[in-house]
Amino acid sequence: MSQIDLVRYVDEAKNDAAHAFSFLKESGTLSASLIFNVAHRVPDHNKLLSVRFPPPWAKTKEITVSVSDFADHGDSVLNEERLHADTFIHAHTPHLAAWSLAQKPFPILYVAAQRHLLAREIPNHLERTRGVLEIVRERLDRHPELAPPPAMLESNGGANFWGKGILKTAELVLLIEEAARFQAIAEQIGGAKVYTPGALELQWARTGLLEKAKAYTG
To answer: Is 218 inside any structural domain?
Structure first.
């Protein structure tokens, strides 16, 4: 990738991040503080693009963009190849934050989110003195029967998400938060139930994940 191509790529990635922020804000996915930060690894380049958005109380609404060497971010979860991720998003969303505060993992029981994910739950990062990368690698090593998680809740805080592409990862933020919202509403009428027989297979077949799902037993 030439320098000119890199500049063009960074500009397009910034636009994608701005679009993601817009649809997450407009859909009510983000909390009132609008905490939403993006880190994206530039393909075939030792570069990491970081995009930060101003809080609602900021007088300037300028988006901050920076580019640094990816090699300088050894603690980034994007270093874990088993996640197949090039994008990291930190966001605060109302209903997932509730699970963070409860210090519990979030089980995904909503088909609109589950059909796009092999993982069945979002773990909670309880040991905050240890980094996300260390915790994720430990989970992958200890539980190969479980699909790699697409996110991790921060105990008593927000959540970290990762995936392929800025827009696709932001889409997962919306769907997982929507699942948390609907499951919270379901608590008022007895709680969300596990999937009926065959339901998961049907959902994964719709998104082409069925064969990959068979590799995991948990």
So the answer is: no
The pTM (predicted TM-score) of the whole model is 0.96
- Distance, in Å, from the CA atom of 194 to the CA atom of 192, rounded to the nearest integer, reads 7
Residue 72 domain boundaries: 3-213
Total domains in the chain come to: 1
pLDDT 10s digits, 158-206: 999 999 999 999 999 999 999 999 999 999 999 999 999 999 999 999 9
pLDDT tens digits, 99-124: 999 999 999 999 999 999 999 999 99
Phi, psi of 46 (to 5 degrees): -85, 55
CA distance 161 to 53: 16
Amino acid at 63: I
Using an 8 Å Cβ cutoff, are 181 and 96 in contact? no
Which of 1, 4, 11, 90 minimizes the C-alpha distance to 49? 11
Residue 2 confidence (pLDDT) above 80: no
Q: Which residue has the tokens 């065959």?
A: 198
Instruction: Check: CB of residue 218 under 8 Å from CB of residue 123.
Output: no
Token pair listed for 160: 């970290």
CA torsion, ordered 102, 104, 208, 41, to nearest 10 deg: 80
Q: Which residues are within 8 A (CB) of 216 and not within 5 positions of it... i.e. 6 or more apart?
A: 118, 145, 146, 147
pLDDT at 4: 67
Residue 54 covered by a domain: yes
Give the CATH number, domain containing residue 63: 3.40.225.10
